[in-house]
Write a structure and sequence with these properties.
With 463 residues, this protein is an alpha/beta fold. The chain folds into 2 domains: 7-364, Alpha-Beta Barrel (TIM Barrel), CATH 3.20.20; 369-461, Golgi alpha-mannosidase II (Immunoglobulin-like, Sandwich), CATH 2.60.40. The chain has 14 helices and 17 strands. The strands form 4 sheets. A 7-stranded parallel β-sheet has the order 5-4-3-2-1-7-6. The protein has a 5-stranded antiparallel β-sheet with strand order 8-9-10-16-13, with helices on one face. Helix 13 crosses helix 14. It is globular. The mean pLDDT is 95.
Amino acid sequence: MRYEPTLDSVSRHPLPAWFDNAKLGIFVHWGLYSVPGWAPLSGDLGDILVSGEWAKWFANNPYAEWYMNSLRIDGSPTQRYHREIFGAEHSYFDFARDFNQAAERWDPDSWASLFARVHARYAVLTTKHHDGFTLWPTRTPNPFIPGYFARRDLVGDFMAAILGQGLTAALYYSGGLDWTFNDTVIQHIVDLQTGVPQMQAYIDYANEHWRELIDRYHTMILWNDIAYPAATDVNELFADYFNALPDGVVNNRFTQRFQLGADGNIVTDNFHDFETPEYASYPEIRTKKWESCRGIGASFGYNRNEGPAQHLTVEELVRSFVDIVSKNGNLLLNVGPMADGTIPEIQRERLLGLGEWLDVNGEAIFDTRPWVVADGTTDGAIGVRFTQKDGDLYATLLATPASTSFEIKGLRCAPDTEIKLLGGPQSLAWHATDGGVAVTLSGPPPASPAHALRISPAPLCQA
């Protein structure tokens, strides 16, 4: 269909199957902030959503990609670190030279092969974060800082490498904050509204950048961040995008009146294909598609200050991912490379651990849909998450059962049902109980963060 620049027209855009099926994407935050690569250790965004202590958050921001903002908050840990390591006269913008030199050594194919190895279906690169530096030599350069862009076409090299591995390639752009246009220091949640540049020059600038990312790089996601200027006709942008790339998707962060919900999701009246809770997920199945984004650690950008304690374990990562998928979500899992493109070893290890689990259990994840309910439990109080595909039900246990026999509550299976442990050699013995179905494994299950059962055909839910 042909889309018109109206809310009614763009709202008819169907969610493309590729995005619904993908489940796992890799987010990459990479830019000038990767040179200092530092932020204090002060928890993650999920903690702040509970406490509401936003002033404390921004002064002690654990997001290393916010280095430029944190540097401008008097007395902040980042300001103290910067003055000690680089000196008070060293401008944030001086990192551009260092980044451009380091980025020449980057091997994009090493990223793409890693992402493919862990079974990611798509990848998203930050083309411009809040500091305004662009990762491509744009035809619409920054009007305030000459040469404020990557000398190498990092966006083009990223897209080529990702597509070369058969993944979907997509791009992030900070439309809501650009500290070269509006240098408001963000110290409280309300500053995210006043910090959005609203002048016509910025509207034209941001729109031209998005159109360049669409026309030149064919991004399959318009992954905007924070908000968008109030006077912009976003429906015109969306209509042109969908007419050019009908299978593209747009997120919910083109909001033109910034409002953050208690669940970490940005509230908007504009059309969007999916929602984007950050360091958060939903407790129930959502009809609207959503994508949880988070770092493996507490930062998106590279933070040399983080150690194992700040990173998800493989077990935590797998179990969170299974939970998200069961509730109609995707996981956009972030890596924060160093300035030369090196992905920290601890992040590689976590990705590879997830990939090894998916080697065996990916059938229960990819191309699935939510079932009647997302959550279940065993008689041993082990959490279970359900997905379905092609008439089969997948029941994934979020821990290893203590016994080879256990009951999954709330299921009613037909007599000819076959139950199999993914990765196992044979069908499993089972019998109906008053409360569900009792399953007997053929032996002790292998060590694993989670264990997926395929139940064919899908049973009835008696809960």
